[in-house]
Design a protein that fits this description.
Blueprint lengths: L3 H15 L4 E5 L10 H4 L5 E7 L2 E6 L3 E6 L5 E5 L12 E7 L3 E5 L3 E6 H6 L1 H4 L12 H10 L6 H5 L10 H10 L13 H20 L24 E5 L4 E5 L6
Antiparallel strand pairs: 1-6, 2-3, 3-4, 4-8, 5-7, 6-7, 9-10
Helix pairs in contact: 1-8, 7-8
The structure holds zinc ion.
Length: 257
């Protein structure tokens, strides 16, 4: 699943392709949006900015209209040179925006909606999001406040996946950050002091910013490495489903306490 670093990387690329470039054409090939008339409604409007909050991406057009996307497990953004082969089949495209130099393609939705700018601020799902992991300045106080307002019996690994507590961490960065901070993802948040909670989000943030810098090339230490030796102590990495959604968490039973 795309996490905050992937979305930030996509927002940067989509922004570079669209902001200050004239839009030559726009198509919404997916049947779900056949009657939405977005190309008509957005005709003649320039893209003002492209930004992200957690796993949400926003393409903001002149005149207060914004395309909002969330990729969930399946979606993907692609930015191509004209005529370049797309990485997914054309029938999977939900949105295609062409400029002179680029084709920006959204594949497989599954959340793609046109809304007013003000709705992007007041929409309940979006307004409830926790501080953005990838923000220029991460709001650590807001993170701690939200963590402490949450169920204290939740494991810290599970709590970090809650987008209302902190926006942008997914299963990969949860596992990697807990490992980097030497924190057992199963430890209840009631037993995680503020310093440890901050250490784990700082580790996540550092790794996610590095991931963006490196074009999303990531070599996990524990994620998806069940049964393989821990890179620090050689103990076998454990894996087990955690939380309401039973997302598999990976951890070293020796280094992480
Ligand atoms: Zn270890």
């Amino acid at each position: 699943m795309p996490e905050g670093d992937t979305i930030r990387y996509a927002a940067d690329r989509v922004g570079a392709a669209l902001v200050a470039h004239e839009i030559v054409s726009m198509e919404t090939p997916h049947p779900r949006h056949a009657r939405d008339r977005w190309p008509d409604r957005l005709a003649g409007r320039a893209v003002r900015s492209v930004d992200a909050h957690g796993k949400h991406l926003f393409i903001r057009f002149d005149g207060g209209l914004t395309l909002h996307s969330h990729l969930r497990m399946t979606g993907k953004w692609g930015v191509y040179a004209p005529g370049q082969r797309w990485r997914r089949a054309a029938r999977r495209a939900w949105l295609v925006i062409r400029t002179e130099g680029h084709e920006v393609v959204q594949f497989d939705g599954p959340v793609l909606e046109l809304m007013t700018d003000s709705r992007t601020r007041f929409d309940q799902r979006l307004a409830a999001l926790g501080p953005d992991m990838m923000a220029d300045e991460f709001d650590e106080r807001a993170f701690l406040r939200r963590l402490r307002d949450d169920d204290p019996t939740r494991g810290i690994g599970d709590a970090l996946l809650d987008q209302r507590t902190v926006a942008g961490i997914g299963n990969l960065w949860k596992a990697e950050a807990c490992f980097a901070a030497g924190l057992d993802p199963w430890r209840r948040t009631a037993e995680v002091c503020d310093a440890d909670a901050l250490a784990v989000v700082r580790a996540a943030r550092e790794a996610m910013l590095r991931s963006v810098e490196r074009g999303l090339r990531v070599k996990p230490a524990v994620y998806d490495r069940a049964g393989l030796p821990c890179p620090r102590c050689q103990t076998r990495v454990c894996a087990r489903g955690q939380g309401e959604n039973n997302r598999i968490t990976f951890w070293c039973p020796r280094c992480q306490t």
